[in-house]
Design brief:
- The structure is a single chain.
- By secondary structure, the protein is an alpha/beta fold.
- About 50% of the residues lie in helices and about 20% in strands.
- The chain contains six helices and five strands, in the order E-H-E-H-H-E-H-E-H-H-E.
- A five-stranded parallel β-sheet has the order 3-2-1-4-5, sandwiched between helices.
- Helix 1 crosses helix 3 (about 60-85).
- The radius of gyration is 16 Å and the shape is globular.
- The two termini are about 30 Å apart.
Length: about 150
């Protein structure tokens, strides 16, 4: 799906997880909005897919699994939503399931994002290099600039 052009509007994709620095993200976006009120924010949470094979299919229905993903996503989004609401920053919500970094990249393309704004948990650069991180993967592969907020 090709993104719809929005001339003059800055489109920011903001993927968050439970440990994302909600207040720092809200402060950053409030500052962006103060500089230019024509920003469009899409708040995204990506849930890692559960192993839904074998016995799991007999015990959990597809509807129960969908509800689980929705509940977990709502929990992950809640702190950032509250911080954005308090900061007066409007946003749209998007919930996805899949490989986290790849879904973020796909959503950025589908949304037509001009930038991806992500929080970092504060792990060191050494830890990121050794273990990897979603922020590192997204930064390395994104076709648009990535801003990391601490």
């Amino acid at each position: 799906m090709a993104p719809v052009a929005h001339p003059g509007m800055l489109r920011l994709l903001v993927p968050v997880e439970t440990s994302s620095p909600a207040q720092a993200i809200a402060d950053y976006l409030r500052g962006e909005r103060a500089r230019d009120p024509r920003i469009e924010v899409q708040l995204l949470n990506v849930q890692i897919p559960a192993d839904y094979s074998g016995h799991a299919r007999m015990l959990v229905s597809p509807d129960e699994l969908k509800s689980y993903y929705e509940e977990e996503s709502a929990k992950a989004l809640a702190p950032t939503r509250a911080a954005l609401d308090a900061a007066g920053v409007p946003y749209a919500l998007r919930q996805e399931v899949g490989h986290v970094a790849q879904r973020i990249l796909d959503c950025a393309r589908e949304f037509g994002a001009d930038r991806i704004v992500m929080g970092r948990r504060g792990a060191s650069d050494l830890v990121d290099r050794v273990l990897g991180s979603v922020a590192s993967d997204v930064s390395a592969q994104a076709q648009v600039p990535v801003t990391l907020v601490h």
